[in-house]
Specification:
This protein has about 600 residues and is mostly helical. It has a single domain, classed as Amino acid/polyamine transporter I (Up-down Bundle). It is built from 25 helices and 4 strands. Helix 9 crosses helix 17, helix 13 crosses helix 16 and helix 20 runs antiparallel to helix 21. The protein is globular, with a radius of gyration of 25 Å. Pfam families: SNF (PF00209).
Length: about 600
């Protein structure tokens, strides 16, 4: 099925607002104006497109949540934070923070039928800058996230060679004097063949960020290809994305389970899995382990990036988002745990082959999927089969996340400037092309010979520093200022029943406290960006650190700027302006579909 356009039902009742409904047990049908006139946006002029089927929304959301972090971050974090014992704080944080906040974002997006910028501006005008900040951070992230897809494409193409090029030291890019065909263990002067392939062949990396070294033209061409794939998957909006996710969101699971079945049969796999799961109960007494669990849930599900709000805005008004919330959250966590078995069974096998401790091989981040795992394939039976399948899986995992992040920017443009921009570009497809083209240009610094240092700097100050500030202010605006009571009415309007006590308690108390705790911990335990480990660690110069903080401020700055703009443009005394700025402007007549039967009767008395 294609995308259905919701037809706006003509309502014979007069306008009434959410704020007025709250103040009365029985809503009176009369001529009550909204607290503030709604903004003139594209939604009011044209019906908003919707997902062709509910399954498309679920698959797109699962595909966005389940990304590369599930493969390279969670397994390493789990064994470093107490092994099987880490699953206790992880699951607690999932139910107290992850599920409630995802449900909150789905509610906001589906009810307002707007992207994060305009939906948050209606919910809490004082913090309208939070919505814009989420768009900025998502777009900044997508400019370097696609570089990972570029590397994956490079490895995929080279995995079809007669012999895997990272399996030996007899290549032109190898430094023969310190190259090892296995893992060097404690021999700090040696590098594995796969590490040298990544450093000297793929990246041709320089000695630091101050040495750009020129563009890697092979990666340049693959970056063009990566962005072209993204464009042709999303250029028709949810109409095209909804079809693509049937493959990109499901295919990784076939590969993941195939790898799991293969890996657990390898010698040494049991030791790797035990190393991954062996509980260290004393770790539960460390505050940082609980903070790590909350941060992993938060980052993995993708809260505060604006993508979940944006995708939910294309739902039908009465879609059961509570069911979808559970599906997305639990699928995300289950995938992380399965990926842990896949990764550590393979690492245990490598430890057995090279007679090394598992701890000497285990790592996280790009090093796991572009150095350690390629080395694993070089010793596996039928390596020519597993290597291409693994990198295709990485491409699918990354592309789903990339779709959602780019779509946030497109949704913002169409919601806020649709008529004006379409007057210039004529077609939405050209707007998407412009967004992708700018993202490609901003990604070029990452595929220079010094690009890995730029990549690490961007990732540290975007995904680590900025995100928790945005998350805190988003939760503050929605759950505390807009209020749990209003949020409950929105859900009752859509689903015909209020959220249960568990969600109301989480929104009112537990989730804000957890987010604040993560933010404080991130500030207290802040460390500057680094690249590499131990003796090979590269320390960034001061000017690069300044650039990193500027990258953080590119998104964060919109929060105070939005608040100042709202207070400046609102009339009255300072106290009156502040009161108006925290008053929601949601007009129930502005939604394009109305619930029927029981939920209508809830708001309109005879």
């Amino acid at each position: 099925m294609g995308v259905g356009a919701d037809k706006k039902a003509e309502s014979t009742s007069s306008k009434f607002t959410l704020q007025q409904l709250e103040g009365k047990e029985e809503a009176e049908l009369g001529h009550a104006e909204a607290v503030r006139p709604a903004k003139d946006d594209l939604q009011s002029a044209e019906p908003r497109e919707t997902w062709g089927r509910r399954l498309e929304f679920v698959l797109a959301s699962v595909g966005y949540a389940v990304g590369l972090g599930n493969v390279w971050r969670f397994p390493y974090l789990c064994y470093r934070s107490g092994g099987g014992a880490f699953l206790i704080p992880y699951l607690i944080m999932l139910f107290l923070c992850g599920i409630p906040l995802l449900f909150m974002e789905f509610t906001v997006g589906q009810y307002t039928r707007l992207g994060p910028v305009h939906s948050l501006a209606k919910i809490c005008p004082l913090f309208k800058g939070v919505g814009l900040a989420t768009v900025v951070i998502s777009y900044v992230l997508c400019t370097y996230y696609n570089v990972l897809m570029t590397w994956a494409l490079y490895y995929l193409l080279h995995s079809f060679s007669p012999s895997l090029p990272w399996q030996s030291c007899n290549n032109t890019w190898n430094a023969v004097g310190n190259c090892s065909t296995g893992f060097p263990g404690n021999a700090t002067h040696l590098q594995s063949a796969s590490q040298q392939f990544f450093d000297h062949k793929v990246l041709e990396m320089t000695t630091g960020i101050e040495h750009a070294g020129g563009i890697r033209w092979e990666l340049f061409g693959l970056l063009v290809l990566a962005w072209a794939i993204v464009y042709f998957c999303i250029f028709k909006g949810v109409k095209s994305t909804g079809k693509v996710v049937y493959f990109t969101a499901t295919f990784p699971y076939f590969i993941l389970f195939a790898l799991l079945i293969n890996n657990v049969q390898l010698p040494g796999a049991r030791d790797g899995i035990l190393f991954f799961l062996m509980p260290n109960w004393s770790k539960l007494l460390e505050v940082q382990v609980w903070v790590n669990a909350a941060a992993q849930i938060f980052n993995s599900i993708g809260i505060s990036f604006g993508s979940m709000i944006s995708m939910a805005s294309y739902n039908k008004f009465n879609n059961n988002i509570l069911r979808d919330t559970y599906i997305v959250s639990l699928a995300n966590s289950a995938t992380s745990i399965v990926a842990g078995f896949v990764i550590f069974s393979a690492i245990g096998y490598m430890a057995h082959i090279h007679n090394l401790p598992v701890d000497d091989i285990a790592t996280d981040g790009p090093g796991l999927v572009f150095v350690v795992y390629p080395e694993v394939f070089s010793t596996m039976p039928v390596s020519q089969l597993w290597a291409p399948l693994f990198f295709i899986m990485l491409l699918c995992l990354g592309l789903d996340s990339q779709f959602a992040m780019v779509e946030v920017a497109v949704t913002f443009i169409m919601d806020g400037f649709g008529k004006k921009v379409l007057h210039v570009f004529k077609r939405k497809e050209l707007i998407v092309l412009a967004v992708c083209s700018v993202g490609f240009l901003l990604g070029i610094p990452h595929i220079t010979r010094g690009g890995i240092y730029v990549f690490q700097l961007m990732d540290h100050y975007t995904a680590v520093v900025s995100l928790m500030f945005l998350a805190f202010f988003e939760v503050l605006a929605i759950t505390l200022i807009f209020g749990v009571r209003r949020l409950s009415i929105m859900l009752e309007n859509m689903l015909g029943k209020k959220p249960n006590l568990f969600f109301r308690v989480c929104w009112q108390f537990l989730s804000p406290m957890l987010v604040l705790g993560i933010l404080i911990s991130s500030i207290v335990q802040y460390t500057p960006a680094r690249y590499g480990k131990s003796y090979q660690t590269y320390t960034y110069p001061l000017w690069a650190e300044v650039v990193g903080w500027f990258i953080s401020l590119v998104s964060i700055i919109w929060i105070p700027l939005g608040a100042l703009h709202e207070l400046w443009t609102t009339e009255g005394s300072l106290l009156q302006r502040l009161k108006k700025s925290i008053t929601p402007t949601i007009d129930l007549e502005s939604v394009s579909e109305k619930p029927s039967g029981e939920s209508i009767a809830l708001f309109a008395a005879a």
